[in-house]
Amino acid sequence: MAKELNEDTGFVLSIKTMIGLGFAVATIAGMWFTLQADIAEAKELPAPPSPEVTRMEFDMKDKNIRLSIQNTEKAVDDLKD
Questions:
Q1: DSSP states of 16-47
Q2: HSE-CB for 2 with a 13 A CA cutoff
Q3: Cα dihedral angle (49, 55, 57, 63), rounded to 10 degrees?
Q4: What's the CA gap between 33 and 18, in Å, rounded?
Q5: Max CA-CA distance within the chain?
Q6: Contact (Cβ atoms closer than 8 angstroms) between residue 38 and residue 32
Q7: Nearest-angstrom CA–CA distance, 18 and 3
Q8: What residues have CB less than 8 Å from 9, skipping those under 6 apart?
Q9: At 4, is the pLDDT very low, low, confident or very high (cuts 50, 70, 90)?
């Protein structure tokens, strides 16, 4: 049979359990306030500069990637032989 809950219903908590719950609440509250402070600090920092890629840099990277692909193709062909 299920017990009925009313205003006379009671429960028992040990001191150890209450201390544990208090510690857990304090830890969570501390983490919350630390997180909020970190967010506020991050909002005040300057935005990082956007990396602008010049045409020359793009062409050099593109050429390097294409050369790497060609070298890999040659190495695969050599392995096939």
A1: HHHHHHHHHHHHHHHHHHHHHHHHHHHHHSPP
A2: 3
A3: 140
A4: 22
A5: 88
A6: no
A7: 24
A8: 3
A9: confident
The two three-digit tokens of residue 19, written as one number: 């201390």
**pLDDT at residue 9, rounded to an integer:** 81
* Encoded amino acid at 66, one letter: R
| 0.90 surpassed by pTM | no
8 contacts 2 by C-beta, under 8 angstroms: no
pLDDT of 1 = 63
The one-character DSSP state at 10 is -
Total residues belonging to the chain = 81
